[in-house]
Amino acid sequence: MDDRDDGFGKKIKDSELIGVPVSIVFGKNFTDHNKVEIIFRNGEKVASALNEVEEII
Fold this sequence. Notes:
Blueprint: H1 8-18, E1 22-25, H2 28-33, E2 35-40, E3 45-49, H3 53-56
Antiparallel strand pairs: 1-2, 2-3
């Protein structure tokens, strides 16, 4: 969990720089539709229901 006061873009860029294999983003889509965005190190992005995240990663 990245709880720094930095902006979203900086947090994602930093996670790429240090080699985080998978990032899970809880954004507006989560609050509206109960979906998260999964971002893999290779750049692939997947929108998923929260209860399907474990299966995807």
